[in-house]
Every structure is written in structure tokens, then in C-alpha cells.
Write a structure and sequence with these properties.
With 366 residues, the chain is of the alpha/beta class. The chain has 11 helices and 15 strands. The radius of gyration is 21 Å and the shape is globular.
Length: 366
């Protein structure tokens, strides 16, 4: 039995008629930039997340940078974040001139909130938690710390569409949040895309200027921005897929629960879901002993898996400037040697999930 890790080809066949209708609807109008389709997606996404403003952008990375930019965070400032994320989290902080300050993680790979206050210095301006794999960080504690120390909270919510913590949607806790609509996300566009949310009217105003060169009108530039607009076709596709998001998350959650019911050994750790969490499972990341051998074993049985990611952010070559070394963040480092994402997308059958789980058990001799 073949079990693919990615379902984009399957998803196209499933959605083909609707996607082609999206293309026709947009292209037939002859307008492709900052059209009504973008406005409608922003309004619908804001309602879904339960925030005042959503601004469509060209990537989650730009959403992070623009949130930092809009809050005046830059050279000489520090932003507390986690070493377990995609490189864009650190990259956004660096690109605005600030310095990332890493705090180690808990067993679920999210930031260890008990270690945040010790990392605060007079230069700290913000906390940037990452809702890794679609599991919301402990935002109650993070927001209390931020309030106590007068810090901005910018959520890296790239993987959190469809995820909740104590009934609140990811990205609705902090001052601003950044979302990715990359093709591998639960809510995905046809290519790179993203958006930012906020309840701050002034930040909303600034980011809408930033995304289109700082132009209030064609001949009136009030500040120097960039080109980071969500294009109309992706907005139309995201409108359609937003309607299906809950069903997609529900199916992924079903698949993960099936894995949990079959995989029965301590050699592969699956972070438990706490009662206050509702994980959207953008990725289903386990922590496996003999990770690389298990990955090869699964591949020999036509099962695709993915190391996601094998290097914590502070140990990348580009991060050498921050002066951290191996051993400084031991929990994250140990996890990165074990992480393995198993296929769990919504187009897999119960038989396929069962097949993978049984092969995992067989590898460990169960």
C-alpha cells in the first residue's frame, strides 16, 4: 500500500470544478490586484478568527515582518521566541533589525512559558510565540507576562488556522498575528500567500500602506513600503477553501486519533492534546527513537514521512551571530534529533492510516 505524505494532486482532483470556477470568476473580470475578492476574503477570515482586521499579504513571512514593523520594533530591540519553527520566524525578526532571543520548548515543541521572564531584558520589546503544527501555545500565561512587562505579542500563527485554545482561535490573543497560506497549510492557496490579523486600527492602517509601496493613492506615497499584496486569484481560492476548513481539520484530527489508538509503544512519543487545546494538525509530528532508521523502514514500505525540522533555529549557520551553541537549548535540540512527521492528510483512508501505524509498531517489534 502506498501512502503519500502530501495530497495536493488528490486535492486538485477533488476540487477541480470549484477551482476552475475560481479562475474563471477572477480572470473574466480583468482585474487582478486588490480587488473585491481580496476584500471579501479579509472580511470572511476576520470573522472566522474573531478579530477586527485581516490584511491579505503575499506570505506569512511578510505578515510577521509587517507586524514587527508596524509596532516600531527594529534595530537594538529584542524579540523573545522559540528555536522550534521554520526559519522565517527568525528571519522576520532579523530583517527588521531586531535580535531573536530564544527560549527552550516543552515536550509538545511549543515555547516553555516558565522560561520567558528570565529572558526579558531592558531591550525586550515583544514576544513571538509559534503555534507549532497547529497546537496553540499557552497564551494565558504569555499574555499575562506581556501585560506585566508592557510587551507586544505577535503570534506566529502560520499553522494555526482551525486551531483553538480555551475556545479562542489561534491568532486572536495577541496584538497581531501572522498566517501562512502556503500549499502545505490546512487553508492553502495555489502558491505563496499569507495574511495578518489585528484588532489595532492604526496597525491595520499601516500594514495596508506597507503592502502596496506606502501609496495612499497612485500618486501619493506617504511612506516607503513594499510589494506584498495577496493576489485576487489566491483570495478567491482561499474564500472557497475557508468554507471547507472545518471539515479538513476534523478529518485530520480523526486520522491522528486513529494513529493514537493503534501506535502502542513508548519508543515513539505523540504529544497528548490537553483539554483546553484543539489542534488543527497542519503536521502530525512525533518524536521517534531511531528516527532515521524508522523513516527508511517506512519508505521501504512505500510510506512517505518527513523530518520537520532536524535543526533548531539557533544552530543554523545563519544564526551564528547570536552566539548560541549546541547544548544551550537542550530540549529543542533533543527533539530535533527525533522529530518525524507521519502522513495524516484528509485524503488518506482509515486503511492507509492503519497500515502506517502497524508498520511503526512492527519497526519497534510490537
Amino acid at each position: 500500500m502506498k501512502v503519500p505524505f502530501i495530497d495536493l494532486q488528490q486535492r486538485y482532483q477533488e476540487e477541480k470544478s470549484e477551482l476552475l470556477a475560481c479562475v474563471d470568476n477572477v480572470l473574466s473580470k480583468g482585474h487582478l490586484i486588490l480587488t473585491q475578492e481580496v476584500n471579501e476574503f479579509e472580511e470572511q477570515a476576520a470573522k472566522y478568527i474573531d478579530v477586527k482586521h485581516v490584511i491579505g499579504l503575499n506570505s506569512g513571512t511578510d505578515a510577521l515582518m509587517m507586524a514587527l514593523w508596524a509596532y516600531g520594533i527594529g534595530k537594538g530591540d529584542e524579540v523573545i521566541t522559540t528555536p522550534v519553527s521554520f526559519v522565517a520566524t527568525t528571519g522576520a525578526i532579523v530583517h527588521v533589525g531586531a535580535t531573536p532571543v530564544y527560549v527552550d520548548v516543552c515536550d509538545d515543541q511549543n515555547i516553555d512559558v516558565s522560561k520567558i521572564e528570565a529572558a526579558i531584558t531592558p531591550r525586550t520589546k515583544a514576544i513571538m510565540p509559534v503555534h507549532w503544527s497547529g497546537r496553540i501555545a499557552n497564551m494565558d500565561v504569555i499574555m499575562a507576562i506581556a501585560k506585566k512587562h508592557n510587551l507586544i505579542v505577535i503570534e506566529d500563527a502560520a499553522q494555526s488556522m482551525g486551531a483553538y485554545y480555551r475556545g479562542k482561535h489561534g491568532g486572536s490573543f495577541g496584538d497581531a498575528a501572522a498566517y501562512s497560506a502556503h500549499p502545505l497549510k490546512n487553508l492553502n492557496a495555489l502558491g505563496d500567500a499569507g495574511f495578518m490579523s489585528t484588532n489595532d486600527d492604526e496597525v491595520n492602517r499601516k500594514v495596508r500602506l506597507y503592502r502596496t509601496h506606502g501609496l495612499e493613492s497612485r500618486d501619493n506615497c506617504v511612506l516607503y513600503g513594499v510589494n506584498s499584496r495577496l493576489d485576487s486569484l489566491n483570495a478567491e481560492v482561499l474564500k472557497f477553501r475557508l468554507e471547507r476548513l472545518k471539515a479538513i481539520v476534523d478529518r485530520r484530527r480523526h486520522n491522528v486519533e486513529l494513529y493514537k489508538s493503534i501506535i502502542k509503544q513508548e519508543s515513539i512519543f505523540i504529544p497528548p492534546e490537553k483539554p483546553e487545546e484543539h489542534n488543527s494538525y497542519v503536521m502530525f509530528i512525533t518524536q521517534a527513537d531511531q528516527r532515521d532508521k524508522l523513516k527508511d523502514y517506512l519508505q521501504s514500505h512505500d510510506i512517505e514521512s518527513l523530518v520537520y525540522y532536524g535543526t533548531p533555529l539557533h544552530l543554523h549557520k545563519a544564526a551564528a551571530r547570536f552566539g548560541l551553541k549546541k547544548g544551550d537549548l537542550p530540549v529543542a535540540e533533543a527533539q530535533c534529533e527525533k522529530v518525524l512527521a507521519l502522513p495524516h492528510h484528509q485524503n488518506l483512508t482509515d486503511d492507509q492510516i492503519t497500515y502506517v501505524a502497524e508498520k511503526v509498531n512492527a519497526f519497534y517489534g510490537v
